[in-house]
Here is the input.
Amino acid sequence: MQRRLNRMLNSSHDHKLLALMDVKGFDPKEVTVTVKDRKVKVLAEHEEEHTTARGKEYNYRNITREISLPPGVSEDEVTYSLGPNSVVKIEMAHKCYPCLLGN
Here is the structure.
């Protein structure tokens, strides 16, 4: 899936797009996006607790991705959204030529 997303990103003609990240299997409440120190960080964390005959078992998984903002892009210009297809879309307010997509 990641290769397909990168291919979509690299072939995109929308120069406002900074990154796409697949967070399938995570609830939207488990996905956090922060913009700080000229970096965008996407964190998805999921924890499950199961009670078995031998006691409690925990299942934990997470995904972290951090990208640097292109030169000339302010942290205030970054927007992000989580679509119904479980893909986080990170964009900037104006077009950037050239931007390195998918840092």
About this structure: Strands lie at 17-22, 31-36, 39-52, 55-68, 78-82, 87-92. Residues 49 and 58 are 5 Å apart (CA to CA). The chain has a mean pLDDT of 79. The longest helix spans residues 2-10.
